[in-house]
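I have been asked to look over a protein record a colleague put together. This is what I was given:
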Amino acid sequence: MTHPSESKNALLIKITLWVLTFTVTLPFLWLLKSAIFDFLNSKDGLILAWVKNSLFFTSAALVFTVVSSIMGGFVLAILDIPFRKTMIVLTLITMLIPTTAMAMPLYVLVDRIHLNDTILGLIIASSYYPFGAFLSYLYFTSAMPSDLVGMGRIDGLGDWGLFYHLGIPLSKALWSIVTFFSFINLWNSYQLPKVLLNAPEHSTLPLGLELLYGKGTATIGLLMLIPAIGLYLLSQRSIERGIFSGAVTG
């Protein structure tokens, strides 16, 4: 039998949670109202162009970053390659270098291949993701012990066979984690687009937020927020499974 005081406490907790939830969502509701107003009163197509640029840039660069990061991490963790330890250290060092320090060298490289002020140049400059590669290295180191790799070799699997038949099936959670963090990094990217893109029509949404400071900012803020929330909701279980998988072993 439930004690009356316990029922009151449970009701009080529910009311408190609902009040807090409503309070937290108030800024989002205000942002949604302002964004709808901006859309209804917008007379130019710059915001739509920025949305297209951001979607194309993020989608294309995401494919390169995720595939290269996971394959690179697999190679560093599993395969016996020359200078393996050196490359692991260099990957860690590169991961610690801020984007602002890499902006100008990347600008010079993109300019030399005549892709400055283009989305394609931005995609090439943004496709390296040392954090994803190092995270993949740590994941495969624990997910594929030497005994498992040795059994695969006995069964006649080569390097590609190990990745295709063992690496990919064992790294489903890793793909979700790397995809999520890479998407957030690319979608919110500001420093590289600021350096590499000049024309307003070539800008992405973060740059557009600066160009439209005080006008249309709610629209861009909402457009930047919704994809990140949607991707997290879609990959939430895989992300949580990947983060906590090591805590339930042993």
Remarks:
- Residues 63 and 127 are 9 Å apart (CA to CA).
- The mean pLDDT is 80.
- The chain has twelve helices and no strands.
